[in-house]
Amino acid sequence: MIETELIALLKKRDRAAFKSIVDTWQDMVYNTAIGILQNAEDAEDVTQEVFISIFESVSSFKGESKFSTWVYRITVSKAMDHIRKKKRKKRFAFIQTLYGKNDEPVIDPPDFFHPGISLENKENAAVLFKALEQLPPNQKTAFVLNKVEGLSYLDIGEVMKISGAAVDALLHRAKGNLRKILKDFYTAMNKN
Amino acid sequence: MDDKFLNKKVDDIMQSIDGIKRASPRPFLFTRLEARMENEKNIWATLSSFVAKPVVALICICFIVIINAMVIFMANSPSDSLTQQGNELAAADEYSQVSTAFYEFENPKP
Which of A11-20, A91-100, A133-142, A145-154 has the lowest mean pLDDT? Predict the structure, then answer.
């Protein structure tokens, strides 16, 4: 069944069409989410939220952009919302520990290992993902869409609603910042 | 660590995710998704999602700000407070609402 037919059926709340859309796009949504969130459980949670959002708001999809672009936009937006929610929770937990309401220490997440990385690159990739956490949200999004999802500059531009040249500049800055973060990290490690 | 070695290390790290494969969610995602959607159908979930909408939150904040502004404006209005004070005095005068408790306390009966 072609995409437009599937979308038309989904607008009529057809269960089979929804299942077909989930089966087709789940890897794309999950991979983007895990690249941004760096946590398998959070990525699954966001993936479910994305498909619920697609099901509920498919009527607002007018076909002006590609369906995949629309799905990517929802995924990035949901993943960013999830990060903000998590930060709020973390801040609240910290306040609770200050006031002695919660004795559990705030634990930093362990290193993230992306399941699609080859074994010999695992350690280096974990360091890169850790450094990625320190980038501003738009640079991080562009980097993940380009390097983890393999999108072209044009496609990233459509998802982020910016021009190809702006994507190029954003990725250039992201790579520069990553190199600086990594250099600082190893220089500091060497001094200790 | 010399610069040459440091640059090589950074290059290796930057290239470590080249050729990355797509990650897949656990099997039976659709079944879990359907279960979640069924759970979220209840009225409380609908209500909370409605309240959590930015538009609703913004309208509530605007409403509270307007109420506060009105209260402050009315409290600081001199003509209103004078009229109110005048009315209170007139009412007290008309019904002879003069408290005698003060004198009774000062001069207790033997």
Answer: A91-100
| Helices and strands (H, E) in chain A, number of each type | 8, 0
**Inter-chain CB proximity B24 and A55 less than 8 Å:** no
Q: Which of B9, B10, B33 sits opposite A22 (nearest CB)?
A: B33
Question: C-alpha angle with apex A80: A11 to A134, nearest 5 degrees?
Answer: 155
Whole-number average pLDDT of chain A: 90
Residue of chain A with shortest Cα separation from B1: A190
CB pairs under 8 A between A and B: 91
Torsion (CA) A41, A44, A128, A144 in degrees, nearest 10: -160
Is A148 within 8 Å of B20 when comparing Cβ atoms? yes
Q: What is the ipTM of this complex?
A: 0.82
Please give the Cα distance from A50 to A27 (Å, whole number): 12
pTM: 0.73
- Report d(CA B40, CA A183) in Å as an integer: 47
Which residues in chain B are closer than 8 Å to A19, comparing Cβ atoms? 30
Q: Where is B35: in which H helix or E strand?
A: helix B29-39
What is the rounded average pLDDT of the residues B48-60? 85
pLDDT band at B77 (very low <50, low <70, confident <90, very high): confident
Residues of B whose CB is below 8 A from A118:
19
Report whether A33 contacts A112 (CB < 8 A).
Answer: no
